[in-house]
Amino acid sequence: MSTLDPIKAHRFGGDLSIAHTTILQGISSGRAASNATAWKSWIAFTSDLGLDPLLQAFQDKIPFLQIFAHRVRLGELAAHGNPIKSRSVEDYVRHVAQTFLQVGAHDPRLNSAHSIDFRLQRTLKAWKTTDPAPLRVKPIPITVIRRIAVLAQTSTSHDATYRAAADMIIMAFFFLLRPGEYTDNDRNPFRLDDIQLFIGDTRIHLLTAPIEQLRQARFASLTFTNQKNGVRGEVIGLACSGDPYVCPVQAIIRRVLYLRQHSAPGTTPLARVFNTTHPVTPSVLTDCIRESVTYLGPSLGFLHQKLSHG
Question: Is the pTM of the predicted complex or chain greater than 0.85?
Answer without folding.
Answer: no
